[in-house]
Amino acid sequence: xxxxxxxxxxxxxxxxxxxxxxxxxxxxxxxxxxxxxxxxxxxxxxxxxxxxxxxxxxxxxxxxxxxxxxxxxxxxxxxxxxxxxxxxxxxxxxxxxxxxxxxxxxxxxxxxxxxxxxxxxxxxxxxxxxxxxxxxxxxxxxxxxxxxxxxxxxxxxxxxxxxxxxxxxxxxxxxxxxxxxxxxxxxxxxxxxxxxxxxxxxxxxxxxxxxxxxxxxxxxxxxxxxxxxxxxxxxxxxxxxxxxxxxxxxxxxxxxxxxxxxxxxxxxxxxxxxxxxxxxxxxxxxxxxxxxxxxxxxxxxxxxxxxxxxxxxxxxxxxxxxxxxxxxxxxxxxxxxxxxxxxxxxxxxxxxxxxxxxxxxxxxxxxxxxxxxxxxxxxxxxxxxxxxxxxxxxxxxxxxxxxxxxxxxxxxxxxxxxxxxxxxxxxxxxxxxxxxxxxxxxxxxxxx
Amino acid sequence: xxxxxxxxxxxxxxxxxxxxxxxxxxxxxxxxxxxxxxxxxxxxxxxxxxxxxxxxxxxxxxxxxxxxxxxxxxxxxxxxxxxxxxxxxxxxxxxxxxxxxxxxxxxxxxxxxxxxxxxxxxxxxxxxxxxxxxxxxxxxxxxxxxxxxxxxxxxxxxxxxxxxxxxxxxxxxxxxxxxxxxxxxxxxxxxxxxxxxxxxxxxxxxxxxxxxxxxxxxxxxxxxxxxxxxxxxxxxxxxxxxxxxxxxxxxxxxxxxxxxxxxxxxxxxxxxxxxxxxxxxxxxxxxxxxxxxxxxxxxxxxxxxxxxxxxxxxxxxxxxxxxxxxxxxxxxxxxxxxxxxxxxxxxx
Lengths: 448, 348
Fold this sequence. Notes:
By secondary structure, chain A is mainly alpha-helical.
């Protein structure tokens, strides 16, 4: 296989694996800050038990997130040297800011959060929890800023030519607030909140089904359901705004998302479908002119299609982009229905009466993971063939001096190590959940 | 190159060179005792001793790792050409380094999670090996940088791809770094432990120091004899002879302080040794970052590798704002976990 493909496979694999964990950490972090805050405010020990329990889970997700994240920081240099030289002037400052403003905050306060229960006051411990949570949120900001700049470059000019060409920053804030940054940061945060909330919902739904830790599980379930409901609804808003941005700034990506080929014609909005890229045909169920309406509030408005771009400037995997995007949206819609219905039952005082609903919540933990992954795959594959949109092609960005054998070697090592790591992750999560927040046989809840 | 911005009479690329140097020193000092402590792991015999050793770095190592992340980010940000050229040319050692980091983190997290003997033994071996190899590889990379790479036009690497990084000189700098980290790690553990484990570590530290002094002497000799340009550099600016002398004095002070049981001071002096040695490296290279062994005109320097003046200015501002924050976090963290290790139910 050639170097470019291997480099892309390795990057996709390592980043996708990494991306299982940080969203969980951000999402669990939010729930943890809420429960610890409630504990400080009410003095109710149940919230302390919940905080300590979720902190243990958080420690695992955070740890694996950091370990796999450091690899990403250096993989730009090892495998994407040309790209690194090209974007260093811009990308670098975002990464530096991430390290200094975000990662340092989360990593130093993590020590106090995990091991400082007996060494600092409850208030300082709570502040440390907020520090770690905010640090992880800021981390996401800078990483998404860097990625958004690749999608919608701004605040720069190009200097030099050929292999020596590179982008230089002309306006830092224009670079940071490039056209897609804000929408995408919010969208990513919300995806992370959903990942965390649905994990909490799943675990406590499981306890409720088993009749274990009933009282604290009800409390935790309600907190997480509150978060999940609000975020599911607002996710629709940020998602829509994000798609509007894509329509304006990356029309080829938007066209791929809906499999829209005509140069300039009203475009459909598919519920689901299958794209035949060769014959430029989509089979599926669609709202005619729906995409036109979403973008221009007019069912007849023309949308730029893939044929408006030269073949070499179009995303190669149109069907994949289409499918990933639509699966993500379907999951989002399902979340809205599920959380609204559960909230309605909560309002009626019947939240925990329906076994089947708790069962659905138990299994739904996987869905935000799928949506987060596929959303990113759609975003990144839709950006192709560009590594920096409109300027540098992916095929020009990889390290020319690295051989395919070297990448094959590292890729196999990654596969082995990450598989083991994933098994360890599942094993220790399972163990922590099975063991539960405390030993029910020895400590009845009243004495906690 | 056009107009050069300066601050306090120093041009931006040089300032950034100092920033990166400072970050790498911080990384070497802090992770030096982390990796170093881990490199003694199998020398500690009892399970409890091993647990105490891991928990000595327990609340700190995640934070210490920040210096690697910021250092790497700073190199990428300020000298993207250096970052890209070094990492892609040294593909295999860096990939191994990164994967060993993952294994090491996993070992810390998972080792004490189960009671089974085979489980702990396996993780102990992984933990020990990864720490030793990480320290060694860092030294190997340093040795390669000092020797220079086969870099041609447009910063393209022309050297061997799989085993070229294992040159004799790189092996020497690898052992020197490992021994220095082990010295640092043993002193740190002395600071954090009591009783019989403490007594054993005093013995181990002696071995570590002998290991360091031997490998350092050999490497220095080799450097002076075989590395072109080193002696010239000192002839040009003899004032910098102060650096090796200071490094020598600092390391000579360590056994004295240890025998007086002033472990914190000993750690400071062992850290100073590292800093002086890194300054020596920095002095030797400046203004080159990565010498080309093909032709000096292809070398990566702080000028042809640097980001734009504008970008460096922005990042210097980020550092000026961020550094006090970082210092504050670290003071607070280290103050909180001051003193001997006490295991409790949140420990690893």
